[in-house]
Amino acid sequence: MSTPVFPLGTAYLPGEIVVLNIFEPRYLELFHNHCNVKDEFVSVLIERGSEVGGEDIRCQHGVSIVVHEIVDVDDRLVVSGVAHSIVDIIEWSHEFDFPSANVIAQSVDDIDMPDRFDVASSLSLLAQNVRRVLAMLREAGVVQPQQNPGVALETIAAGRWWDERVTQDDLWRALWLVARHVPCGPMDRYNLLRPGSLMERAERLRLNVDHVTEIANFRFSE
User: Which of 33-42, 48-57, 123-132 has the lowest mean pLDDT?
Assistant: First the structure.
């Protein structure tokens, strides 16, 4: 059976809180009849086109979203959940009025311990850069004061979060935590969802961080 898919103008990353306002009839049907609390649907980025009305061109990689709550508000639904794992679209389906597809969870290869140390060190440096950029943007009034990096990002930036027992799961969680704080566009976020090793995605994240740091320094540094 195919999985319900919600194409959006946002590329969600694993671990991200998702809140959607549902008002289009085909998606109301999705959540009224096919997706309950604790169920999953898939979110994919729209490459070209609109969220409303269909006729959009969709990206081929997305994230599964675990539904935590569905609330009726007048003539719409408010759906909240958490982005979970990366999935690849195998084939689009016409089983329902709303978009659906056959999907498969993306697989990743394990990495050796020396490479884990390299990735961990790289993520700590990236977290430091992200922290500086966010501070610069807050000072410039681009982001609100409450949008601070948070304790977890501070811990990664300080380098206190890993040792010789660090696991690959630890590294993935740290990578997505740093990535979620980078103030970049949806296509830059989507690039992190494309297939690749942990080290390859850490390098893509570095490019994203370097890009936003360049822009922030050009626009807001004294």
Answer: 48-57
Residue-level pLDDT at 49: 79
- Counting the structural domains of the chain, the total is 2
Task: Give the whole-angstrom CA distance, residue 204 versus residue 11.
Answer: 15
Radius of gyration of the chain (CA): 19
Share of the chain above pLDDT 70, in %: 94
Same domain, 94 and 154: no
Tokens of 135: 């501070």
Q: Tokens 């993306």 map to which residue?
A: 106
- Of 50, 76, 105, which residue constitutes the final position of a domain? 105
Identify whether residues 90 and 130 lie together within a single domain. no
Nearest to residue 12, comparing CAs of 193, 207, 168, 171?
A: 193
Dist CA 101 CA 39 (whole Å): 16
pLDDT band at 1 (very low <50, low <70, confident <90, very high): confident
Residues 117, 216 within the same domain: yes
pLDDT of 68-89, one tens digit each? Answer: 999 999 889 999 999 999 999 9
**Do residues 147 and 65 both lie within one domain?**
no
Q: Which helix (H) or strand (E) holds 203?
A: helix 198-220
Which helix (DSSP H) or strand (DSSP E) does residue 187 occupy?
helix 186-193
Cα–Cα distance, 64 to 40 (Å, whole number): 6
Closest CA to 42 of 77, 81, 96, 70: 81
Q: Tell me: do 131 and 76 sit in the same domain.
A: no
Range of the structural domain that residue 101 is part of:
3-105
